[in-house]
Structure formats: C-alpha cells, structure tokens
Amino acid sequence: MAAGLPPDVLGRRVACGTDYGTVRYVGSVSRTAGIWLGVEWDDPQRGKHDGSYEGTQYFKCRHPKGGSFIRPNKANFGVGFLSAVKGRYGLNDEQDVQHATGDAVVIGTKTVEFVGMDSVAEQQRQVQLNKLVDISVRECAVSHAGQEEEISRTCANMRHINLSKNLLSSWETVIAIASQVQNLETLNVSENKMRFPSTSTFTTSGFSNLKILALNQTEITWTEVLLCAQGWPVLEELYLSSNNITVLERPDTVLQTLKLLDLSDNQLLDENQLHLIAQLPRLEQLILRNTGISSIHFPDVGFGCKTKMFPSLKRLAINDNKISQWSSINELDKLPGLRALQCNNNPLMDTEKNPETLKQLIIAKISQLEVLNNCEILPAERRGAELDYRKIFGKDWLEAGGHWNPEKNKPSEEFLAAHPRYPTLCLKYGAPEEGELKGRQPLTLKNQLLTLTIKCPEKPEQKPVEKKLPESMTIQKVKGLLYRLLKIPGSQLKLSYESSKLEGKEVELDNDLKPLQFYSIESGDCVLVRW
After folding, report:
1. Coil, strand or helix: which one is 380?
2. Do the domain assignments include residue 499?
3. What range(s) does the CAP-Gly domain occupy (predicted)?
C-alpha cells in the first residue's frame, strides 16, 4: 500500500472537490508511473470510462462512463467525527484563545489567569461540546469515528445528529459513532453510499433510544434494513427514499414500534409488496410517493368491511404513481383509521376535467377521510359531496336493481363493486327521489337559478321572502344582498339553511368565499338568517 493511504482504502468513500465517489482500485496503471486510485463516481458525468484503460479492466462500474483514475493526493479521505464537530461549531484549538493580555487570557467574555493556558482552553472546549444537543455536520467529510471513546468523553449530551452527505463507507462506522452517544434519538445518515452487514452477527446498544432514522440514498436493501433493525428496538420513524428497494419481506420480529415509514422513490416490484408490511401494528403514516404502484387491494375482506391490514394507519401518501382505476380509491375505504390521503399526480386524476368534482368523488368514496391533498375536509363539504354522489349515480343504481322499497332493493354486484358506499349513503340521506334523477338540463342561466325562501327565525314578525339566486353566488354576495333587504351589516349575519328533503337538519353556510352550490342547496330550500 502506498505511503499516506489508509489501510482499508478499497471501498472507501472519497471526495474530490465537490464530487463524491468510491475507491474501486489502488495500484499502478500501464505506461504510467506511480500509484493511482480507480474511482467510481456517484455522478457518472464526472467519469471517463468503465474502469478499463488501454484494453485492461482495472475495476468495474455500473455506468459505462462512471469511472476514472486520480492521484491519491487529489482524494479527500475525510476526517473524524469530533474534528468535524469542532470545525463546524468553531471549537478548534486556534479558535479557543481569542486574545491574551499580560498574565491573563480572555476566553469568550471571561478573563482567566495565565496559568496552564492549554489546560484551561481544553476545559472550556469540553464544556462547550458537552452543551451541544442538536449537531449537524452535513457535508463535513466525516469518514470515521476518530479515537476510541473520544466522542463519549466530549459530546455526552448529543441527542440529534445529522451526518448526511459525508464520506461514511460502512454501517460499522455509524455504529462506532452512535455507540458513544448514550441518548441518541435522531440520526440522519442519508446520502452516504455505505456497505451494510449481510448477516446479523453484530450487536450494539448504540441505538437503544433511537426514535428517528433517515437512510435516504444509501443503497440499502430491504433485507439489510431488517438485519440492522434488530438493533433499533424503539424506532418510530424510518426514512428510506431513493434506495432502489424493489422487493419487501415481512418484518415479523423487528420494526414493531414503527409509526412512520417512507418508501418514496423506490420502484416496488408490484403493489402486492405492500401486503408484506401490512401487519406492522403501530404504523400510522406510510409514504409511497413515486413507487410505481398501479393499484391498491386489500383481499382479506369484501366491500363494506374493514380490513385487518394496516390496523393503525392514519396517513397515506400515494401521489406520483400509476393508479388509474377508481377501484383503488374504493379499497382505501376499507382502512379503518385512514384520516389523511395524498393522491395527486396519478392517471386517475385525469378522468375528471373538473378538479372540484374529482375531489368530491374521493371524499364521498372514503367515509372517514378528514384531509385530502393537504386540505381539510369541512363537514359541510363532506355532506355536499355525499349528496351529490348519491344523486349523480342514482340512475345507475336504479338500472342496476336499486329500489326505494328495501324489500325490492337488490343492486347488482357490479354496481356495488363500483360504488361500495352507495347503500350507506342511501341509509344516511335516504334513497334518491325520482325527481332528483331526471336527466341534467343544459346549463342555461335559468337552470342555474335557485328559488330559495329567506327567513329570520329570531324575528317571526318579519315575513319570509322568496328570492331567485344564481347557484354560483358566493355566501359573501348573499350577505350583501341581505344587507340591502334587512339593513344589517353582512359581517354580523350568520347564515344556515334547511333542506326541503331533510327536515330538522340545519347546515351552516360558514365560508364566505364558497358558492351556494358548494353546500348542495337546491330550489325549495330555506335560508335562515340570524345576527
């Protein structure tokens, strides 16, 4: 091995300027003098060849132009963890002593007698390091743990460490650092292309308190995740995006405390892979953005029933995928605890030209949903969506065997498969009446006018007024109209309405920016005015 090179140079991560790579070869190259490093670069644009030179293959690269040779003195092999911390937080030896006067040295704002200056500076540095709780040494070229036990002696109170985009070459190096941090709770080692153990022979207490772990862009496989997870007994959040994970395995004895799992930007082999992680008992949030899935199915139960899969799941992200069928949205209603869904940028989103209609269909199909694509679903919005859904597909329901008489109500299996919530909506709001199911008329202005009765419940002496209002009129404009009628400032008015078809149910018109049609108001309904 050439002088000055680390003994374990093969496989080591190196930096050369702003470029990162892995050493794949050390030695001579034909018709040249001296030692060369053969490097496979993370960015293939930095390379020149596939590891071969003048017909000789010195090392192999995944990309045909991902490799090149550099001299050892051009490679940065990195620094120890503690050196990086001191450099990042300004605690190096030369930065401790700011200025000296006579027999004293000033450290910070304190003047200390000029007795054993080196010792005092070291003590002061130790105190400052021990105060650090949240440490970030991102892009500080950390490659090893440093001297034995030096981290535990100087940084005893660390709880959160960001080690992303460094020169960590193996998981063992991460263990060597973490095992010296007794109360480590959060660790980010993303963007380090590391070697991970292939067997479970190692044990460590370094992660006994670890709650959050980020391993994005580390090239870890799911098999390696399960092996390493034996050392993460209380882990709650695991981030694994962009790792080329295609196949999952059932985590029978590990990850049982996990609440959040991020698998985004991994092209899963198929959607059945999700069934293998469906029994994680505490998983509340699953992020599957851009994983290539085209459908979702929970085969353990039929429509109208709740699946035993993902028993604790509350938040699901399936945006940027290939989902094109409404059947996948129907399946999501089987999840008993689902409250928040992100599903933007799927082919399904192109099936409806009007994004508001699309949103209402999803709301109506998933009964317990409270947040859709980061927007809260208000009670009035849910009610309007469900009433519209019940009306829009009422004709299909009748043609499929649906009937107002419960004894004659026998919709086909095909209809129930396409609209599994329809029977529930009929129970909730009543079966749609024949008048509601007449074909839609052209959208002329006349057809868009609503005939509404306006009442003031708190002033019975004031006679009800009948008004024709466009269904597109906002609540704010309705209040402006009422101001002219009643001479009461719109800011003081509180509006609600009673449906002519649902007696006793009063719905607040609580969003000034929404149109009347948002609340599914129909001709014949009564607007109630209070102040």
Report:
1. helix
2. yes
3. 27-71
Angle at 520 between CA 514 and CA 522, to 5 degrees: 120
Amino acid in the structure at residue 174: V
Q: Give the separation between CA 194 and CA 301, rounded to whole angstroms.
A: 41
Task: Note whether residue 438 is domain-resident.
Answer: no
C-alpha distance from residue 59 to each of 24, 47, 55, 164 (Å): 6, 13, 12, 27
Cα 406 to the center of its chain, rounded Å:
44
For range 197-209, the mean pLDDT: 78
Alpha carbon 407 to chain centroid distance?
47
Confidence of residue 225 (pLDDT cuts 50, 70, 90): very high
Give the number of other Cβ atoms within 10 Å of residue 405's Cβ. Answer: 7
Give yes or no: residues 462 and 399 share one domain: no
CA distance 170 to 220: 11
Beta strands in 17-61 (DSSP E): 19-27, 36-41, 52-53, 56-57
User: How many domains is the chain built from?
Assistant: 4
| DSSP letters spanning 284-353 | -EEE-TTS-------TTS-TTS--SSSTT--EEE--SS----HHHHHHHTT-TT--EEE--SSGGGGS-S
Burial class of residue 233 in the structure, from the number of CB atoms within 10 Å of its CB (0-12 exposed, 13-18 middle, 19+ buried): middle
Q: Which residues pair with 111 in a beta bridge?
A: 106
Q: Taking the CA atoms of 147, 152, 153 and 155 in sequence, report the sign of the dihedral they define.
A: positive
Are 6 and 13 spatial neighbours (Cβ–Cβ below 8 Å)? no
Residues 266 and 162 grouped into a single domain: yes
Q: Give 523 or 159, the one with higher predicted confidence.
A: 159
My answer on whether 199 and 343 are in the same domain is yes
From the CB of residue 497, how many other CB atoms can be counted at a distance below 10 Å? 23
Nearest to 25 by CA among 16, 15, 35: 35
Domain span at residue 40? 12-74
Same domain, residue pair 420 and 479: no
Of 112, 214, 233, 120, the C-alpha closest to 160 is 214
Distance CA 466, CA 452 (A): 6
**Residues 84 and 69 placed together within one structural domain of the fold:** no
Per-residue pLDDT at 278 exceeds 90? yes
**Residues 6 or more apart in contact with residue 344 via CB below 8 angstroms:** 319, 320, 373
| CATH code of 33's domain | 2.30.30.190
Q: What is residue 389's three-state secondary structure?
A: helix
Q: Do 345 and 281 sit in the same domain of this protein?
A: yes
Is residue 129 domain-shared with residue 207, that is, in the same domain? yes
Residue 437 lies in a domain: no
Rounded distance, CA 5 to CA 21, Å?
Answer: 16
